[in-house]
Write a structure and sequence with these properties.
By secondary structure, the chain is of the alpha/beta class. 28% of the residues lie in helices and 28% in strands. It binds 1-O-pyrophosphono-5-O-phosphono-alpha-D-ribofuranose and hypoxanthine (HPA). It catalyses: GMP + diphosphate = guanine + 5-phospho-alpha-D-ribose 1-diphosphate; IMP + diphosphate = hypoxanthine + 5-phospho-alpha-D-ribose 1-diphosphate.
């Protein structure tokens, strides 16, 4: 076993499970119902925010009960760290957003810098309306704008460094089937 794999196995052994798989699945079902109620007649263009939004988007998409056009973009600011830095666009969307309702789907609203920047980008490129959906809203008072919220939130989770269901710790454990907090963080 490599040192990294051993370290990551230990991270999981020592982690606290904050939300189990069944609870996450229930939250995703609620998100899907709320989004369907709000957007079924809006012909929205959905953007998955890679990489973290991958798992939520995949699970959400099949539960949305209307025709959805889905694309992706990639913006990142944490890389292998547990605190965020400057936002780097790795892949900007090239879909035509003019006059469209946009739904941005991501794993977590932490400080909110990422979602605000993506929403600004969409509005600047002609979006009529930009809505955001996240699996997790981390509870703290360091939001990019006071009181910042997503339009659709699956779960509110305490202020720890999280992994699982799309969220990574040092690039690993996005695949963890629940929401976990790293020991000591
Ligand atoms: O609300 P914020 O404080 O801006 O943080 C949230 C963002 O951070 C994570 O992405 P990350 O930068 O780790 O990129 P990745 O998903 O490609 O790993 C996460 O997937 C969100 O996009
Ligand atoms: O707590 C977190 N975990 C993983 N990725 C993140 N990106 C922002 N906050 C987090």
């Amino acid at each position: 076993m490599t040192d990294t794999v051993a370290e990551m196995n230990q991270v999981m052994e020592e982690a606290d499970c904050l939300v189990n798989e069944q609870q996450v699945q229930a939250a995703i079902r609620n998100l899907a119902d709320d989004i369907t109620d709000r957007l079924r007649d809006s012909n929205p263009l959905l953007f998955c925010v890679m990489n973290g939004g991958l798992i939520l988007t995949g699970q959400l998409l099949t539960q949305l009960k209307f025709p959805v056009q889905a694309e992706y973009l990639h913006a990142t600011r944490y890389r292998q760290e547990t605190t965020g830095g400057i936002l780097e666009w790795k892949l900007r969307p090239d879909a035509d957003m003019n006059g469209r309702t946009i739904l941005i789907v991501d794993d977590i609203l932490d400080e909110g810098t990422t979602l605000c920047a993506i929403a600004d980008y969409c509005r600047a490129h002609g979006a009529k309306e930009v809505l955001t959906a996240v699996l997790v809203d981390k509870q703290h008072d360091r939001k990019a704008q006071p009181g910042l919220k997503a339009d659709f939130t699956g779960l509110e989770v305490e202020d720890r460094f999280l992994f699982g269901f799309g969220m990574d710790y040092k690039g690993y454990w996005r695949n963890a089937p629940g929401i976990y907090a790293v020991k000591g963080l």
